[in-house]
Prior knowledge:
The protein has 11 helices and 4 strands, in the order βαααααβββαααααα. It is mainly α. The protein has 2 domains: 2-153, no CATH class; 170-269, no CATH class. It has a two-stranded antiparallel sheet with strand order 1-2. The protein has a two-stranded antiparallel sheet with strand order 3-4. Strand 3 (159-160) and strand 4 form a beta hairpin. The longest helix has 16 residues, at 59-74. It is globular. The termini are far apart. The model is unreliable at 128-167 (pLDDT under 50).
Amino acid sequence: MCYQIAEWSQRYEVSIKGREPRNGEELRAGPLSFIRLKVYGHKQGTGYRRLASVSGDRLMEVFGIFCKLLEISGNQQRENRGKIFNEKDTPASIDDIAFILGISGEKVGFAMEKLCEVGWVIPLNPGDSGESGTLLELNTTQHNSTQLNSSCCCYGNAAVNGDGSGMTTTTDLVLDEWGKLPLPEEKKHPKEAERMVIERAISNLMLDTEEPIHEGMIIEAIGNYKQALKLPKSQTYKHKLFPFLTKHIKKYVSYNFDIEHHDGSQYGAGGKSIKSHVEQLKIEGILK
Protein backbone atom coordinates (compact mmCIF):
# COMPACT_ATOMS: atom_id res chain seq x y z
CA MET A 1 0.00 0.00 0.00
CA CYS A 2 1.25 3.47 -0.82
CA TYR A 3 -0.18 6.86 0.06
CA GLN A 4 0.59 9.98 -1.93
CA ILE A 5 -0.01 13.66 -1.26
CA ALA A 6 -2.24 15.10 -4.01
CA GLU A 7 -0.68 17.93 -6.07
CA TRP A 8 2.63 17.69 -4.22
CA SER A 9 4.65 19.40 -6.97
CA GLN A 10 2.20 22.26 -7.49
CA ARG A 11 1.48 23.03 -3.83
CA TYR A 12 4.38 21.98 -1.61
CA GLU A 13 7.61 21.34 -3.55
CA VAL A 14 10.62 23.67 -3.22
CA SER A 15 13.26 24.48 -5.86
CA ILE A 16 17.00 24.69 -5.25
CA LYS A 17 16.44 28.43 -4.74
CA GLY A 18 14.11 27.76 -1.83
CA ARG A 19 10.95 28.90 -3.56
CA GLU A 20 8.07 27.68 -5.70
CA PRO A 21 9.60 25.93 -8.76
CA ARG A 22 9.24 28.07 -11.87
CA ASN A 23 9.69 27.23 -15.55
CA GLY A 24 11.29 23.84 -14.96
CA GLU A 25 13.56 25.13 -12.19
CA GLU A 26 15.70 22.37 -10.66
CA LEU A 27 14.43 20.79 -7.45
CA ARG A 28 16.50 20.06 -4.37
CA ALA A 29 17.96 16.55 -4.67
CA GLY A 30 18.00 15.63 -0.98
CA PRO A 31 15.39 15.90 1.78
CA LEU A 32 13.84 19.34 2.20
CA SER A 33 14.43 21.57 5.23
CA PHE A 34 11.05 23.20 4.66
CA ILE A 35 8.06 22.98 2.34
CA ARG A 36 5.59 25.48 0.91
CA LEU A 37 2.18 25.77 2.55
CA LYS A 38 -0.15 28.44 1.20
CA VAL A 39 -1.25 31.19 3.59
CA TYR A 40 -5.02 31.68 3.53
CA GLY A 41 -5.15 34.02 6.52
CA HIS A 42 -8.65 34.89 7.60
CA LYS A 43 -10.25 33.55 4.39
CA GLN A 44 -10.10 29.76 4.43
CA GLY A 45 -10.33 27.94 1.10
CA THR A 46 -13.12 25.69 -0.11
CA GLY A 47 -10.94 22.61 0.38
CA TYR A 48 -10.40 23.42 4.04
CA ARG A 49 -14.10 24.00 4.59
CA ARG A 50 -14.87 20.68 2.93
CA LEU A 51 -12.37 18.95 5.21
CA ALA A 52 -14.12 20.63 8.15
CA SER A 53 -17.50 19.33 6.98
CA VAL A 54 -16.33 15.69 6.88
CA SER A 55 -14.08 15.78 9.97
CA GLY A 56 -16.50 17.43 12.40
CA ASP A 57 -15.03 18.26 15.79
CA ARG A 58 -11.86 16.33 14.87
CA LEU A 59 -10.90 18.85 12.18
CA MET A 60 -7.80 20.18 13.94
CA GLU A 61 -6.64 16.63 14.64
CA VAL A 62 -7.01 15.66 10.97
CA PHE A 63 -5.44 18.87 9.66
CA GLY A 64 -2.53 18.56 12.10
CA ILE A 65 -1.85 15.00 10.96
CA PHE A 66 -1.94 16.16 7.33
CA CYS A 67 0.70 18.81 8.07
CA LYS A 68 2.92 16.14 9.66
CA LEU A 69 2.40 13.96 6.56
CA LEU A 70 3.75 16.84 4.49
CA GLU A 71 6.88 16.89 6.66
CA ILE A 72 7.32 13.12 6.33
CA SER A 73 6.88 13.33 2.56
CA GLY A 74 9.25 16.28 2.27
CA ASN A 75 11.94 14.33 4.12
CA GLN A 76 12.59 12.17 1.05
CA GLN A 77 14.93 12.22 -1.88
CA ARG A 78 13.65 14.17 -4.88
CA GLU A 79 12.31 11.13 -6.73
CA ASN A 80 10.23 9.97 -3.74
CA ARG A 81 8.80 13.25 -2.49
CA GLY A 82 5.04 13.41 -2.51
CA LYS A 83 4.76 9.79 -1.36
CA ILE A 84 4.57 8.80 2.29
CA PHE A 85 7.38 6.43 3.23
CA ASN A 86 8.52 5.08 6.60
CA GLU A 87 12.00 5.35 8.09
CA LYS A 88 13.09 2.36 5.95
CA ASP A 89 12.13 4.19 2.73
CA THR A 90 9.29 1.79 1.99
CA PRO A 91 5.59 2.75 1.68
CA ALA A 92 4.25 3.68 5.10
CA SER A 93 1.27 1.82 6.54
CA ILE A 94 -1.22 3.29 9.00
CA ASP A 95 0.75 1.61 11.80
CA ASP A 96 4.03 3.07 10.47
CA ILE A 97 2.59 6.57 10.42
CA ALA A 98 1.14 6.13 13.91
CA PHE A 99 4.56 5.01 15.19
CA ILE A 100 6.38 7.93 13.54
CA LEU A 101 3.93 10.50 14.91
CA GLY A 102 3.59 8.86 18.31
CA ILE A 103 -0.21 8.68 18.17
CA SER A 104 -2.81 5.92 17.92
CA GLY A 105 -3.58 3.98 14.76
CA GLU A 106 -7.24 4.95 15.20
CA LYS A 107 -6.38 8.65 14.89
CA VAL A 108 -4.24 8.07 11.81
CA GLY A 109 -6.86 5.78 10.24
CA PHE A 110 -9.62 8.34 10.78
CA ALA A 111 -7.45 11.16 9.39
CA MET A 112 -6.44 9.19 6.29
CA GLU A 113 -10.06 8.29 5.61
CA LYS A 114 -11.11 11.94 5.68
CA LEU A 115 -8.06 13.16 3.76
CA CYS A 116 -8.75 10.61 1.02
CA GLU A 117 -12.41 11.59 0.99
CA VAL A 118 -11.61 15.21 0.14
CA GLY A 119 -8.77 14.27 -2.24
CA TRP A 120 -5.82 15.62 -0.24
CA VAL A 121 -4.24 12.14 0.00
CA ILE A 122 -4.37 9.45 -2.69
CA PRO A 123 -4.10 5.71 -1.88
CA LEU A 124 -2.28 3.81 -4.63
CA ASN A 125 -1.90 0.15 -5.51
CA PRO A 126 1.52 -1.40 -4.80
CA GLY A 127 3.88 -0.63 -7.67
CA ASP A 128 2.10 2.52 -8.79
CA SER A 129 4.42 5.48 -8.48
CA GLY A 130 2.68 8.48 -10.01
CA GLU A 131 -0.36 10.61 -9.33
CA SER A 132 -2.18 8.70 -12.04
CA GLY A 133 -1.80 5.41 -10.18
CA THR A 134 -4.66 3.03 -9.53
CA LEU A 135 -6.70 3.69 -6.42
CA LEU A 136 -7.02 0.87 -3.94
CA GLU A 137 -10.35 -0.82 -3.36
CA LEU A 138 -10.67 -0.06 0.32
CA ASN A 139 -12.55 -1.72 3.15
CA THR A 140 -16.05 -0.32 3.66
CA THR A 141 -16.40 -0.88 7.39
CA GLN A 142 -13.10 -0.42 9.21
CA HIS A 143 -11.04 2.75 9.55
CA ASN A 144 -8.93 1.87 12.58
CA SER A 145 -6.69 -0.62 10.79
CA THR A 146 -4.43 -0.44 7.77
CA GLN A 147 -7.49 -0.24 5.52
CA LEU A 148 -9.69 2.76 4.95
CA ASN A 149 -13.36 3.39 4.37
CA SER A 150 -14.37 3.20 0.72
CA SER A 151 -16.18 6.52 0.97
CA CYS A 152 -12.82 8.07 0.10
CA CYS A 153 -12.63 6.13 -3.14
CA CYS A 154 -14.85 8.11 -5.53
CA TYR A 155 -12.26 8.48 -8.27
CA GLY A 156 -14.85 8.92 -11.00
CA ASN A 157 -16.58 5.68 -10.04
CA ALA A 158 -19.55 4.86 -7.85
CA ALA A 159 -18.87 4.65 -4.14
CA VAL A 160 -20.95 3.33 -1.29
CA ASN A 161 -22.01 5.98 1.19
CA GLY A 162 -20.59 5.63 4.69
CA ASP A 163 -23.82 4.06 5.96
CA GLY A 164 -24.04 1.75 2.95
CA SER A 165 -27.30 3.36 1.93
CA GLY A 166 -26.64 3.99 -1.73
CA MET A 167 -24.23 5.01 -4.47
CA THR A 168 -22.73 8.42 -5.12
CA THR A 169 -20.43 9.22 -8.03
CA THR A 170 -18.01 12.05 -8.57
CA THR A 171 -20.28 13.27 -11.37
CA ASP A 172 -23.19 13.42 -8.92
CA LEU A 173 -21.13 15.50 -6.50
CA VAL A 174 -19.95 17.84 -9.26
CA LEU A 175 -23.47 18.33 -10.62
CA ASP A 176 -24.76 19.00 -7.11
CA GLU A 177 -22.13 21.70 -6.47
CA TRP A 178 -22.64 23.20 -9.93
CA GLY A 179 -26.39 23.47 -9.28
CA LYS A 180 -25.67 25.81 -6.35
CA LEU A 181 -23.96 28.43 -8.53
CA PRO A 182 -25.53 31.83 -9.29
CA LEU A 183 -26.08 30.99 -12.95
CA PRO A 184 -29.06 31.11 -15.31
CA GLU A 185 -31.14 27.95 -15.06
CA GLU A 186 -30.14 26.76 -18.53
CA LYS A 187 -26.47 26.84 -17.49
CA LYS A 188 -26.93 25.66 -13.92
CA HIS A 189 -28.64 22.34 -14.71
CA PRO A 190 -27.15 20.33 -17.62
CA LYS A 191 -29.54 18.19 -19.62
CA GLU A 192 -29.52 14.45 -19.02
CA ALA A 193 -28.12 13.96 -22.53
CA GLU A 194 -25.04 15.98 -21.52
CA ARG A 195 -24.19 13.75 -18.58
CA MET A 196 -22.09 11.32 -20.59
CA VAL A 197 -19.74 13.99 -21.97
CA ILE A 198 -19.51 15.59 -18.52
CA GLU A 199 -18.54 12.22 -17.01
CA ARG A 200 -15.90 11.81 -19.70
CA ALA A 201 -14.53 15.31 -19.05
CA ILE A 202 -14.27 14.59 -15.30
CA SER A 203 -12.54 11.28 -15.98
CA ASN A 204 -10.04 12.98 -18.32
CA LEU A 205 -9.21 15.55 -15.64
CA MET A 206 -8.63 12.90 -12.99
CA LEU A 207 -6.54 10.62 -15.19
CA ASP A 208 -4.35 13.34 -16.72
CA THR A 209 -0.79 12.02 -16.33
CA GLU A 210 0.86 15.46 -16.23
CA GLU A 211 -1.54 17.55 -14.12
CA PRO A 212 -4.34 15.42 -12.65
CA ILE A 213 -7.26 17.29 -11.12
CA HIS A 214 -8.94 15.04 -8.59
CA GLU A 215 -12.45 15.08 -7.16
CA GLY A 216 -11.68 17.38 -4.23
CA MET A 217 -9.87 19.80 -6.54
CA ILE A 218 -12.82 19.91 -8.97
CA ILE A 219 -15.22 20.70 -6.13
CA GLU A 220 -12.79 23.30 -4.79
CA ALA A 221 -12.48 24.91 -8.24
CA ILE A 222 -16.26 25.17 -8.52
CA GLY A 223 -16.29 26.83 -5.08
CA ASN A 224 -13.70 29.34 -6.25
CA TYR A 225 -15.73 29.97 -9.43
CA LYS A 226 -18.73 30.65 -7.19
CA GLN A 227 -16.74 33.23 -5.23
CA ALA A 228 -15.75 34.95 -8.48
CA LEU A 229 -19.33 34.99 -9.76
CA LYS A 230 -20.65 36.51 -6.54
CA LEU A 231 -18.33 39.54 -6.57
CA PRO A 232 -20.37 42.79 -6.68
CA LYS A 233 -18.58 43.82 -9.88
CA SER A 234 -17.69 40.39 -11.17
CA GLN A 235 -16.28 40.19 -14.67
CA THR A 236 -16.40 36.41 -14.65
CA TYR A 237 -18.08 34.77 -17.63
CA LYS A 238 -21.02 32.48 -16.85
CA HIS A 239 -20.07 29.12 -18.34
CA LYS A 240 -21.93 25.90 -18.83
CA LEU A 241 -20.42 22.97 -16.93
CA PHE A 242 -18.86 21.08 -19.88
CA PRO A 243 -16.78 24.00 -21.25
CA PHE A 244 -15.84 24.94 -17.69
CA LEU A 245 -14.39 21.45 -17.14
CA THR A 246 -12.64 21.21 -20.50
CA LYS A 247 -11.32 24.76 -20.98
CA HIS A 248 -11.44 26.89 -17.83
CA ILE A 249 -11.15 24.82 -14.66
CA LYS A 250 -7.37 25.12 -14.22
CA LYS A 251 -7.50 28.85 -13.51
CA TYR A 252 -9.95 28.16 -10.67
CA VAL A 253 -7.89 25.43 -8.98
CA SER A 254 -6.54 26.96 -5.77
CA TYR A 255 -2.86 27.06 -6.76
CA ASN A 256 -3.82 29.24 -9.77
CA PHE A 257 -6.91 31.08 -8.53
CA ASP A 258 -6.62 34.84 -7.92
CA ILE A 259 -9.96 36.42 -7.12
CA GLU A 260 -8.66 39.92 -7.84
CA HIS A 261 -8.51 39.03 -11.53
CA HIS A 262 -12.29 38.61 -11.48
CA ASP A 263 -13.08 41.84 -9.63
CA GLY A 264 -14.22 44.52 -12.08
CA SER A 265 -13.70 47.24 -9.46
CA GLN A 266 -9.95 46.69 -9.86
CA TYR A 267 -10.01 48.01 -13.42
CA GLY A 268 -10.67 51.40 -14.95
CA ALA A 269 -11.59 52.52 -18.46
CA GLY A 270 -10.05 50.39 -21.18
CA GLY A 271 -9.60 47.46 -18.82
CA LYS A 272 -6.45 48.85 -17.22
CA SER A 273 -5.64 47.84 -13.64
CA ILE A 274 -6.24 50.81 -11.33
CA LYS A 275 -3.67 49.48 -8.87
CA SER A 276 -0.98 49.12 -11.54
CA HIS A 277 -1.81 52.55 -12.95
CA VAL A 278 -1.42 54.19 -9.52
CA GLU A 279 1.89 52.40 -8.95
CA GLN A 280 3.15 53.62 -12.34
CA LEU A 281 2.16 57.21 -11.51
CA LYS A 282 4.11 56.93 -8.26
CA ILE A 283 7.18 55.67 -10.13
CA GLU A 284 6.92 58.63 -12.50
CA GLY A 285 6.62 61.01 -9.56
CA ILE A 286 3.18 62.22 -10.53
CA LEU A 287 1.68 60.76 -7.35
CA LYS A 288 3.27 60.46 -3.93
